[in-house]
Structures are given as C-alpha cells and as structure tokens.
Amino acid sequence: MDxxxxxxxxxxxxxxxxxxxxxxxxxxxxNKTPKAKPRAEMKEISHWNDxxxxxxxxxxxxxxxxxxxxxxxxxxAKGKPVTFARLPIGWPGEAYEFDGPLSFMGNDGGGxxxxxxxxxxxAALALKDSDRITIGVIGDGDYLMxxxxxxxxxxxxxxVMIVAADNRSYYNDEMHQERVAQMxxxxxxxxxxxxxxxxxxxxxxxxxxxQGFESEEPVSTPEALAAALKRxxxxxxxxxxxxxxxxxxxxxxxxxxxxxxxxxxx
Length: 266
What we know:
There is one protein chain. This protein is α/β, with parallel strands linked by helices. The protein has one domain: Rossmann fold (3-Layer(aba) Sandwich). The protein contains nine helices and four strands. It has a four-stranded parallel β-sheet with strand order 1-2-3-4, with helices on both faces. Helix 2 packs across helix 8 and helix 3 packs parallel to helix 5. The C terminus is likely disordered.
C-alpha cells in the first residue's frame, strides 16, 4: 500500500480474473461444493454485526461523535439499496453491514486525500441507471481537496449523495504530527498547527450549492442527520444531487458509547 508493489505470491498467473476463477471453479468441480445456507435458515447463528446492536444507539440530542454518525448512517441504509462509494478513515468497523458486492466500493490504493469526491461520483455514474442510491461519506479535508468533482456530477446530471464527516481538521495528520512530536520529544499539543480547518470555518454547504448540489444547514445531532439522509435519499431517487455537512467531534474516531466519556476527558 505504501509503494504500490505487487503482492508476494507463490504462483503468478497472467490472466483475466473472471476467466481464471471460472476455470478454477470448473477444475475444482464447484457443483459438488455444499451451498451455503441462506441467512434466513441460519436463525441460530447471529450475524457478526448483531453483537454490537446493544451499544449502537447514538446519544439523542448530543453533539455527534464519528461513532454516532456511523451508527445513524448504518440504520438509515438498513434494508435499502445503498451503495457506499467511500467511507472515511476511522469509520467504525461495527458500522459495516454490507449484504452484497455493491454495498461498498472500497478505497483508493494509495491512501490519497482528495480522491473521495471523484470516486463517489464515478461510482454514481456507473450506477446511474440502476435502482441504487450512491452515497460517499468522506472527510472534510478529502472534500475540500476534490470538491471540484461536484460540478461534474451536476453537469452530467449524475444522481449522488455526499456526506462530509466534518471535524474541522485534517485529523489524520494531526494524529501523525502528535506521534512524530512524541518521538522527537516535542510538545504534542501543537499537533493542530497547519491541520485545523477553522478560523475562519469553511462553508462546505456553500461550496456544494455553488456547484449545483442541493443542501441544508450543517447537522450536528444524530436526529438531524437521520432527517437529512431521508430528504437527501428522496432527492437522489428523483435524479438529483444532495450534500450533507455532518459536524462530528474531533478525537472520537474509535470511541463507542462505552468509551466516549473516557475519550472526552483526554
């Protein structure tokens, strides 16, 4: 991932993946392989995500953490034909509840910042004539570095929803600067310098509207986000484009409900 090197393998095979897999299945006599039982027939076996449901409810009326945002979006997408084109760094694994290959498109190979808007709109173009709702959940830094891609979606009338996880910071780099500061015996409290996206705060909504997206004022609670997602889905289903600026508290990337208080004190 750092240098885009080829994976180390025992037998390199030069072939188209689909053709190769088809031939492998034929050679392995896949018809003799027992078919997996449908999920409905496996009631005694819980889905791996079910174990987190008891602690997945966001705190009502409170400022959102990334955990709250993730659980709200997970609840919104449940049972709907949603394709997540992108998800941001730090997205809780408990929020992954995918039921098919089009549920999540993955991330870029190099970890580049700024590719989220383009990847989201590219996925939405590919799915334009399907019944799926394409949503890109991206960080505010990612959004700012590739926001011009929104114009392309409007120009070519590509239905899509973009949700910014807005912590007003290039937060991944904040954490990197803190680690480096500790290694070099420098003050880690200076990690925010050059990374905070504040003072003045950037109007992400205005940038989206300027490029033809419908939007609303930033949302800062799970309830407001859930309502915005519902409105956005209706607009996208009718061929439109919608942007949501979802304000989240910085520093809670890995914090579940049992951890919020402890993280908040640090």
